[in-house]
Amino acid sequence: MKNLASLSLRCLLLSALSLTALSPLANAKPWEPDSDPFTVNRNYSAFFAELPLSAQLPDSERPWSGPYWADKKGSIGLRWQSGERPWDYKVYSPEAAKELKSDEIAKLSPAEKFDLLRGEYTFPILKDLQSITGKSKKLWYGICTGWAQASLHFDQPKPITLAGPNGQLIPFGSGDIKALASYYYAFPGEEDRVTARIGTRCDRGDDKRDCKRDVNAGALHIMLANRLGLEKKGLFADMAKGIQVWQHPIYGFSSRALGERSPRKDASPLAVKEVHVKTTLNYAKETDATWEVNSIREKTRHLNYWLEIDADGQIVGGKYTLILGGRVPDYVWISEPLTFSHGWELLSRLITSKGTSPVPSKNPEPVETSDEDTDF
C-alpha cells in the first residue's frame, strides 16, 4: 500500500472534517478531538443500550475484492494477464495502436485499453504512471484507497466489449474495470472526494502499542453501530499499524458484551461503569485480477475493549485491553460516491453497463499482484 506522507503516494491521509462543530459530549472531552465520532455525523447516537450490536451489509451491497495495483508492478499499466510491467514492453505507436485487433487489445493493460476507448492513441495514462511507478518502489505502495472506495460504491463490474472511436472492439475484463475505477478514486477524482475520519495514523514504522492517537475504542463502537447498524452503509479503515497503510472496506461487525466493572482511575470522569465488549470486524481483502467476476475475499479482525458509560447510558470513552485488544485500526473513515469526470466520463459506461465480453481464447490464469500475503 501507500505511504501517506506525500501526494505522490496513493493511500493518502484523508482530510478530516473541521472540528469546530461541537459534539454533544464536547464539554466532557471523552476523547481526543481527532477521535470524536460526532465530527463525522452530529446525529450519531451514543446510547449503548439503543445501539445495534451487529450489522452486515446485504450481499448486493458488499464490496468486491480486487488488486491494489502495486506501483512496483506498474499500477494499472500492468498487463496483468501476462505479468508485463510498463518497462517490460514497448508501447505501441499511434499508427500501430489504431490497427490492433480485438484479441490483441484484450491482453493489454487497463490503462492502455481505456486510452484506446477514449481515442487517446499516445497513451497519456501510461505517461502519467511513469512518475509514480518503478522497480524501486516499496511493495505496499499502490492505490488501496481507491480500491476500497470503488469496491463499496459500485457493483462488481462484469466483462464487456465496447467500440472505440475508430470502430475497434475493446474487450474489458472485470479486473480491468476495477483497476480503472480504483485509479480514478486515487487520482483524477481525488480532489472531488468528500471524506471524514476519526483516529490518526501511527507512522512510527513498527507495531508498537504506544501510538496514542489511534481511533478511541468508544468512538469506534459508536461509528460501527451508527454507520453499519443504523445507516446501513459501509466504511473504511487502515487495518495496519505502523508505517505501512492498508486500506480495506468494512461491511459488517458483531459485538458481544462480556461483563461490567466500576470505572478505572483513567476512565472518563463522566463514566459510572465500564462494559467489556468483544467485536469482530468483517472486511474485504485484496485478490488478484481476474477476467470474470470473482468472490469476495473475506477477512475478520477481533477487538476487545472496555466502553466507558455515563449515568445516562451514553458511551463517553473507551480503551482497548492490553493483552487481547487485537490489532487496532489506525483510523476509520467514510466517503461519498463519485461521478466520473475529468476526461474519464466513459468509465461510467464500463462500470454500470451489463453484458459479457468474449473471454480471450485461452482464459489466462490470474497473475498475482502482490509478492506476499499480508495478514491485514
Quick summary of this structure?
With 376 residues, this protein is of the alpha+beta class.
Counted up, domains total 2
Strand content: 15-25%
Count of individual helical segments: 8
Q: Give the SSE order as H and E letters.
A: EHHHHHEEHEHEEEEEEH
User: How many strands appear in the DSSP assignment?
Assistant: 10
Rg of Cα set: 22 Å
Q: Give the quaternary arrangement of the chains.
A: single chain
Overall mean pLDDT: 86
**How much helicity do the residues have?**
10-25%
List keywords for this structure.
376 residues; alpha+beta; 2 domains; two-stranded antiparallel ribbon; 10 strands; disordered N terminus
Describe this structure in words.
Helix 3 packs across helix 6 and helix 5 crosses helix 6 (174-186). Helices cover 18% and strands 19% of the residues. Residues 2-22 and 353-373 have low confidence and may be disordered. The N and C termini lie close together (11 Å). Strands 1, 4, 5, 6, 7, 8, 9 and 10 form an eight-stranded antiparallel sheet that branches. It has a two-stranded antiparallel sheet with strand order 2-3. The chain is of the alpha+beta class and 376 residues long. It contains eight helices and ten strands. The chain is elongated and about 75 Å long. 48% of the residues are buried. It folds into two domains: 28-62 and 197-335, no CATH class; 71-191 and 339-352, no CATH class.
